[in-house]
Amino acid sequence: MAGAYMSxxxxxxxxxxxxxxxxxxxxxxxxAAHDLKKELKAGIPHPVLQGxxxxxxxxxxSTRTRVSFExxxxxxxxxxxxxxxxxxxxxxGESLPDTARTLERxxxxxxxxxxxxxxxEELAEFASIPVINGLTDLVHPTQALADIMTIEEHKGRLAGxxxxxxxxxxxxxxxxxxxxxxxxxSMTVACPPGYEPEPRILQEAVADAAKTGAKLEVxxxxxxxxxxxxxxxxxxxxxxxxxxxxxxxxxVFSRYQVNTGLLEQAKSDVIVLHCLPAHLGEEITDExxxxxxxxxxxxxxxxxxxxxxxxxLLMQ
Length: 316
Ligand code: CP
Ligand code: NVA
Prior knowledge:
alpha/beta; Rossmann fold; 4-stranded parallel sheet
């Protein structure tokens, strides 16, 4: 075993938001994930987490994140425990600090998907073991790293590319802004007024982008955003926890659809990403989802390789 995933530079760190990592550290996650993917395809085992355990707390549903972390931990030689938040004492009011101080006695790492970013931060503050953010209302950092891995595979580079994000200025958009800023990719978010990314996240990302030469902007018109884009990205109009707003959002976002007409404004070799799950016919058409530009299932696959990289680097 000799891949970049053997590095001890990030050992013991939490993974709460992309903003916590330097451009060099993001490069290390990418190199580790590419190496792990190559080895898996070649049938080379890499049991670097033998004897280690990961607890996975979910207070929201998941297909990709749950399965890729669980399978990834198995492939690294460790043991994953799925902890539905409804089945542990958290649901009955046990505090996050007490949960953290208990779990750290059994586990080597915790992955958590929940609503408030503050809860993930509190868990990390009280647990001495690495805590990995598997999505909050604010950010989705493991997703963004798998996304840039996918872009790098298809485009051969990151710096100097342009990504257009069409839709809600949500958790996925936030993590992509933070990530693009660090790797020198320009990003334009097209969203309806009132659904822009959080100003604090945008301002911090713009400050980082100034150092890498990336240009970040928010516009209203989807066609203007995709002009000259190498990558077009979209996500659900209504995220988990916003189910009651679904009808209102379907109205507000109706022109924020990634369809064949919109893609014609982008570069001819544009690739289309979607974090999934998708609502076909809403934010993306069937035609684009299954069309020649779509790399969404490569992207979904890369969650596995990137999550293994994150666990290996933090927990070895
Ligand atoms: N993209 C993503 O996080 O998918 P899941 O909600 O299925 O985990
Ligand atoms: N923005 C979406 C992402 C799902 C992976 C949500 O939070 O539901």
